[in-house]
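Thread: Response regulator transcription factor, structure

OP (GT): Posting the sequence first so everyone is looking at the same thing. Length is 266 residues per the record. Can we get the structure tokens written out before standup tomorrow? I want them in the notebook alongside the other entries.
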Amino acid sequence: MAIVIRNSIQEFTLQLLQYIHSATKKNASCGVILAPCANITPNSLEQAKRLMSQNDASLEVQFFYDDSNQILCAVLGNGTLGSTHYASLVLKDLLQKQNLLQGQLIVSSFPGSGKPTESAIADFIQQTIQSKGSDDDIRFFTAANAATSVLIADTDDIVREFIKIRLELKGYRVYEARDGQEAYDEYFRRLPELVITELNLPILDGYQLIRSIQRDANESKVIVLTDKQPVGSMSRAYESGAADYVTKPLSISELEWKVKRLTTTH
């Protein structure tokens, strides 16, 4: 007689898959929120479900808590990525007020963000587990393009966060750096397919960063994002190895199109 041994993540993966398949079979789409939490009680689950149902009556809300991995899971029947993201803001506020949240909320939707395969859901869960101890932020998981990664190097926190959210909504895995040295270190740690960099960076400037990337790993593409005037700086950026150039104030649609073109070509 064969004995099948499953670990806690495998059990959680199969359980979540059942919820997703049930929700997508009944509705056109399904949103999922995973949140690392401690000390979740049945009363906490009921309170969260009631709050989110009141917030958006169009969603069919189901909650369960995986005790082994300490992850709270919300499955939202009829939820798109946009409505699920909005619901995650409501859930985050509740969990923070009750001191239950232990890391980042990871948000996704199916089939919009990819097929809910066993390997994709396992990656989804692993990303949530790895977020434990991080800031109480909201991140996106997209199975369809999770392998396509982008590094953003910019000293402006608002610019980085804005681009990160927009690209994550498109399915890219995004990393951040606040200066040239951090970007250099992060690049060789992550090896992303694309780098978006400001030219005005401390420690290593954008030109030095581009040359370092092209010298040591010239398969990656680089988009320069800067408020410098194109005359002179554009030519120098291309000579350093940049593949494209976007000026500030930023047109996010232009940047998204160039990211898509370069990563698809790559």
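GT: Both are above now. Quick notes for whoever picks this up: The chain has two domains: 8-140, 149-265. Residues 1-5 have pLDDT under 50 and may be disordered.
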